[in-house]
């Protein structure tokens, strides 16, 4: 037979059964519909992947998920897809996650809800057996969510501790104050970019993939994941120490420039190479081993019982109704706005006098979208000075969130840097800031909404969720009391004295902002 007369191999689509073709088209249409319905959240995620270096690695995750599904295609095709009504349970749960993010103004939760909705389409439209076969790719979708920036402060502190220990071991005299390290070569800051967070979360994503593809033993998988957390953190501390050590000989500027090049282009690859090289001899998955076993999935008794709960197209109607309900609820919550006074003013405080605002380095907290803002200074007879910042919101919504990312006492892209946490005063959230490497400032933050008075952003989010879930409109106030360390005053001591003179902060804030609800 001539080569051209040989029968052509069947195309992948033509090789699928009619049931699978229908299921794939149904899933593709549902996924596209979700992307259109939640286009704003999807676009926000993609912008973060592209614009924020911490999340650049996520650009590869969709391709990785596609590859993971492709690996399983032969075995998955042996299973029968079916509409499955219990799939409404995870679908509704994902919709509630999105709703909680929408009504609290927490973008991370909104985006997690969208990703969870996408994953929950598989059990709903394909059934439990296909879901079992695609369990790891579905789990890996969690790495589509741009998260990890919340760890920056913790990682800065850990890196500073590792670095100062290594600096002392190398015989360099040094002092550490929060995330600032002083050596004979100058002052070094373990800045947000030096925290190693983008390295850490990328390593966790890589390690999770490697654990599934290269290992069968759960014990070895767990050991790899521990290494993918511990090694990057220690390596980042060593990198920071290397910069400080080199600066003692070549100067701080030259060492910092070299560090950025090495860390950006070489360091990450070297650490990955070390982890892969050490792990290589422990790989226990055979090269020709299928990623899943369709026969074993088919024979699993509990999956057989669950598969009997298949249903008809009406389940799609219910899923659409769930999405319409949460979208409508979120829209109604977005329209909430509490009445506010036309103007607010800083009140008199016994023993303290309003004075001109004259900081050594300009400091002004950020409160994007606030309806009212005030910034002023008080002084007492002993010369202590306290700066007072107030922001009042009629509602909490996208672009107007008290405690949102980049909001609060630390101004992004300014002369001020976060230095360390400070002891809380009267339940506030305390931070130490350093301006231009020479001016120390303490800031204490409180949030007020209804009966809530707390320095916890998480508690504010929960209070906001409660109010918007019940469609109650309450104003929200942010109060930040701050003071500079000066020769004649301790910043913390000045703030404590001011709080004591003002009296209970809750009623004081209510009078300031005309917030008398609930009393």
Automatic annotation (TrEMBL):
GO molecular function (one): peptidase activity
Q: What is the predominant subcellular site recorded for this chain?
A: membrane
**Its topology with respect to the membrane?**
Multi-pass membrane protein
Q: What is this protein called?
A: Exosortase A
Q: Which Pfam families match?
A: DUF3485, Exosortase_EpsH
Q: Which GO terms describe its biological process?
A: proteolysis
| Domain of life where this protein originates | Bacteria
